User: Which sequence fits this backbone?
């Protein structure tokens, strides 16, 4: 009986200590809950490990992602509370891809209903042909449907520089990397379901040069992606 009594006393003291600890640290605990809830549903950042979006996004960039750009979800779940916006051509998005079994960051090239084809890396959307203008070594300005962006066309043998005319199905988008000959995207994984899009990348928060001892690239800090 004495052993049982001692165990009960220890448990009671442990519970009291836990309650007191929670009470003493309640502001910090609430702050952490709010912080992670905010990151889960509203905004987050994403480290870019590959060069598939170069030159727009470079390896080592940490990009700011607006997770509420298209939908608002309950924190820590995939339950959509409200639709907050539409996915547009040209948006750079974070994709939780089932086909790739990883997260991807790509540019939305075409949305549902668009008719798209690619001929020797030249994009056609709804009958309009993209205009390519040289900007630098392997860099081109791509203009189509009123949008302009810089893409890389490295002289690499790519099996994905052509595809026949296709129509983007409902509730899907076609996404590609700006580094066109060095990107595994919709040309390999197929159309991206809208439900897999986790948010819109808006800016580079900071950047570390992975090829130079991870020194900061100050010129890329707080730069817009558009």
Assistant:
């Amino acid at each position: 009986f004495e052993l049982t009594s001692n165990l009960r006393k220890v448990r009671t003291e442990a519970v009291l200590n836990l309650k007191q600890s929670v009470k003493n640290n309640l502001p910090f605990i609430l702050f952490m809950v709010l912080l992670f809830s905010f990151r889960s549903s509203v905004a987050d950042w994403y480290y870019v490990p590959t060069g598939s979006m170069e030159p727009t996004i470079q390896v080592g960039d940490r990009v700011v992602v607006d997770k509420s750009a298209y939908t608002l979800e309950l924190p820590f779940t995939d339950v959509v509370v409200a639709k907050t916006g539409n996915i547009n051509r040209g948006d750079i998005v974070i994709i939780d891809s089932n086909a790739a079994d990883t997260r991807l960051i790509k540019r939305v090239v075409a949305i549902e209903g668009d008719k798209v084809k690619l001929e020797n890396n030249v994009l056609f959307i709804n009958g309009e042909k993209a205009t390519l203008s040289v900007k630098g070594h392997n860099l081109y300005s791509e203009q189509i449907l009123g949008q302009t962006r810089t893409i890389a066309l490295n002289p690499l043998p790519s099996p994905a520089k052509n595809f026949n005319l296709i129509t983007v199905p409902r509730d899907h988008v076609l996404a590609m990397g700006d580094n066109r000959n060095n990107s595994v995207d919709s040309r390999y994984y197929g159309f991206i379901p809208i439900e897999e899009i986790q948010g819109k990348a808006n800016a580079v928060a900071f950047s570390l040069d992975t090829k130079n001892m991870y020194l900061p690239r100050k010129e890329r800090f707080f730069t817009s992606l558009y």
